[in-house]
Amino acid sequence: MNSANNNTNTGVGLVVRGLRKSFDGQPVLKGVGFEVQPGEIFVLMGPSGSGKSVLLKHLIGLEEADEGEILINGESITTPEIAAKYRMALVFQSGALLNSLTVGENVGLYLTEHRLKPPAEIEKVVLEILNDVGLKDAVNKMPSELSGGMKKRAAIARALVIEPQLILYDEPTSELDPLSSVVIGNEILDLKRRIHVTSLVVSHDRDLAFGVADRIAVIMDGEIKIIGTPDEVKNFNDPQVQKFLHADFKREK
Amino acid sequence: MFENIGEIFLLFWRTLLALPFAWRQRRKVLDQFYEIGNASLLMVCVLSFFIGAVIALQTGPVLVERSLSNAVGGVVGIAIAKELAPVMMAILIAGRIGSAMAAEIGSMRVYQEIDALRTMNINPVHYLVLPRMLAITVALPMLVITAILVGWFGGAVVANYNAHMEIPFRAFYSDLRDIVELKDVANGVFKSFCFAIIIGAVSCHQGLNTIGGPRGIGRSVTKAVVNSIVCIVIFDYVLTRFLLK
Predict the structure, then answer these.
(1) Are B51 and B151 contacting, i.e. CB atoms less than 8 angstroms apart?
(2) How does pLDDT run across B16-49, given as a tens digit for each residue?
(3) Contact: B120, A92; criterion CB under 8 Å
(4) CA distance A167 to chain B (A)
(5) Does the A1-87+168-253 domain belong in CATH 3.30.160.390?
(6) Which residue ranges in chain A fall short of pLDDT 50?
(7) Where along chain A do its domains lie?
(8) For chain B, how many structural domains are there in total?
(9) Which residues are CB-contacts of A93 (< 8 A; sequence separation ≥ 6)?
(10) What ipTM was predicted for this assembly?
(11) Which one of A54, B31, B112, B137 is least enclosed by Cβ atoms within 10 Å?
(12) Does the beta-carbon distance from A83 to B121 stay under 8 Å?
């Protein structure tokens, strides 16, 4: 999605307007719109099947919208120069590490394939970034030897190599235990503090959303129900949203 | 299968356009080349030895009976060089290597590794398809040359030791040299080059278009092998017709 020729570390602004997408006549996104400010952590919450991941694929250019537009710093993502101008990275739900490469090779893949640095320097950068995410000892391990949390952190490390201005996270805490989820959440907060990156987190994890978000949007059935601060979302008086936010087990005592 | 022919040609065209980047992928090309050679060389030798042997066994006694013992070397030589070695080796490689290509790329597609490459602005054709195509188009012709030599040897062994023939090695190879020309061997090698492109393009296309989970990968592997073999047999006729002119 990018080529590291823009060395500013400031996050970029993101605008999504009237995004519509249908698959086989079945509408998945019904005019979704929101704005993310530079350096903001914006969490898009919603139940499974609400259209979160499809929206994410549009943002990274893996899907084309039927209608609507996506702007990065005011420029449409469909313009050919956008990939060279702004650096974006996606942390996949599964990590999507290349299973045939070691963790170190995965993290350095972008730099190696685009020949952005000599091999010795790539090795140094990879070790530094792995150290930042607490995976220095895993540099020579294969992805199959990592736990779920380590895979997610390796995927974040791979995204950081790009020095991104916008990071998209797809369900970063799914399949993780609470402790690993906290580590990932802290990592997202730490990145904002360290490199002022803009973060768009797609998740249905309420603890993560209310723990890290500057603002939250709740998407249901392909429509945004509310956008606001965590407190505004908590207090939003809509039965569907409240049911989602407070869903719990009912056990007879 | 036939609805995908346009897409397969497009993939092949994109691979051709990626050729200027081949040097960058040299390590992966060598890895794939080693993989193909290592996985197939022994099998190629065994298979081609017995193909040569059985051709000699089938044709030899009939020709000797009609006082045509000096044609045995030529018949075995021509059959192996022009037809059997390229076609049988291509079918073998479609089964062993084409299936592996489809499975590997297919699982990368299913587990979003290809999407991850795209988000890093790494072209999957450059990264995955080009090295495999280059490796197979070099490896298969080399395996076919090996198969031709081993097949001839297999024929010579049977012609020498079979009680109905008893044609000495020297006579067998002398007859073979009289009939088989370098052009015949070149025809077989050229065919194998074309078959390698078919196997590479069909298998990589199938892998890149895999959908679903493990069942989808299995389906892709089966399709890659079956479609490759069907294309090889059809193109074998077309190429033979063209090369006979």
Answers:
(1) yes
(2) 999 998 998 899 999 999 989 888 999 999 999 9
(3) no
(4) 11
(5) no
(6) 1-7
(7) 1-87+168-253, 99-162
(8) 1
(9) A53, A170, A171, A172, A174
(10) 0.80
(11) B31
(12) yes
